[in-house]
Amino acid sequence: MRITVIRTVTLATVSAAAVCLGAATATAAVPLAQPDQGRIGVQLSHEETETLAGGPIPALVTMVVPLNRIGAGLHSDTQIYRDQNGGVHASLRQVIAETTTHPDGSVILFLNAPGTRDGRVFDIYQSWTR
Fold first, then answer.
1. Could you tell me the sign of the dihedral formed by the alpha carbons of 35, 38, 44, 48, in that order?
2. pLDDT in tens for each of the 130 residues of the chain?
3. List of residues 6+ apart from 14 with CB closer than 8 A
4. Within a 13 Å sphere around the CA of 86, how many CA atoms are in the beta-carbon half?
């Protein structure tokens, strides 16, 4: 029951972020579906990523999803500390904000189905080329 509530709140939060970001910017988030991997997500533009980093969504998500249930796919040039076991030592906001320091930096967000992705509820991936 608790996981269902967390997933529902997270999905609602991510959906609200996508709607707010879409309304606030001229570009639209690109929806992604990976049913074979049991997850749905959204790819944000650089402007949407900046808006997300500066808003309340990262804090709201981490209020209902423990950090050990959020996966972070860090860029190879990241400045965020990762220990020898692959553990990321940063907040969700820090992972998002780091991408905004790059001119083309953006994030991809995924909501995972129960029982997939090693128990992670939420995954975020950094992306930039410059």
1. positive
2. 555 545 555 554 555 555 544 445 456 799 999 999 999 999 999 999 999 999 999 999 999 999 999 999 999 999 999 999 888 999 999 999 999 999 999 999 999 999 999 999 999 999 999 8
3. 42, 57, 61, 109, 111, 122
4. 6
DSSP annotation of 98 reads H
How many CB atoms lie under 10 A from the CB of residue 107? Answer: 28
Distances in Å between the alpha carbon of 15 and those of 29, 42, 90? Answer: 10, 9, 23
Residues in CB range of 21: below 8 A, 6 or more apart: 29, 44, 48, 51, 52
* pTM for this predicted structure: 0.79
Residues facing residue 72 across a β-bridge: 124
Per the CB < 8 A criterion, the answer to whether 68 and 124 are in contact is: no
